[in-house]
């Protein structure tokens, strides 16, 4: 009665576009953050983690 069913509920196929979209958004936000850290406006800010280089 319990356990694996003959027709299992699909998970990856309907959730696949959301996983891909999440990965793309994560990548783009990381790229934007890196570009903002290296910008001229915040290059000498003491709160900038890349300022010590």
Automatic annotation (TrEMBL):
Stretches that traverse the bilayer: 12-30
A GO cellular component entry from the record: proton-transporting ATP synthase complex
Organism for this UniProt entry: Phycomyces blakesleeanus (strain ATCC 8743b / DSM 1359 / FGSC 10004 / NBRC 33097 / NRRL 1555)
PANTHER family: ATP SYNTHASE SUBUNIT J, MITOCHONDRIAL (PTHR28060:SF1)
InterPro entries: ATP_synth_F0_jsu (IPR006995)
Pfam families membership: ATP-synt_J (PF04911)
Stated name of the protein: ATP synthase subunit J ATP18
This protein's UniProt keywords: Membrane, Transmembrane, Transmembrane helix
GO molecular function: proton-transporting ATP synthase activity, rotational mechanism
